[in-house]
Design brief:
mainly beta; seven-stranded mixed sheet
């Protein structure tokens, strides 16, 4: 059973930056398609950014974060990151790490991000 653990969330002022990290264990990490999702209060979970396995490296972003967020992965460390810049109050949500490989689909417990002055 794979385990994903997110970290790096917190309170930040509008315009600020945060870097989220997701550590994966008990998986052949390089095979997995990794994504970041978020869920704001009262809203459905939405895809923020994704990066394919080590052999693809195709990266996609939602329109709402394009140009402000950057997803990256370190296959040697089994880590995926989300660099978030120019944060806005509407980015406030719990951010979740997701790993997919075929029918295998794993989620972390989430890390909260609050953007407020």
């Amino acid at each position: 059973q794979a385990q994903l653990v997110e970290s790096g969330g917190g309170l930040v002022q509008p315009g600020g930056s945060l870097r989220l990290s997701c550590s994966a264990s008990d998986v052949t990490f390089s095979l997995y398609h990794m994504s970041w999702y978020r869920q704001a209060p009262g809203k459905e979970r939405e895809l923020v950014a994704s990066i394919t396995d080590a052999f693809g490296d195709k990266i996609e972003y939602s329109d709402s974060v394009k140009g402000r967020f950057t997803i990256s992965r370190d296959n040697a460390k089994d880590m995926v990151y989300l660099e978030m810049n120019k944060l806005r109050p509407e980015d406030t949500a719990v951010y979740y790490c997701n790993a997919k490989f075929g029918a295998l689909d794993y989620w972390g417990q989430g890390t909260p991000v609050t953007v407020s002055s």
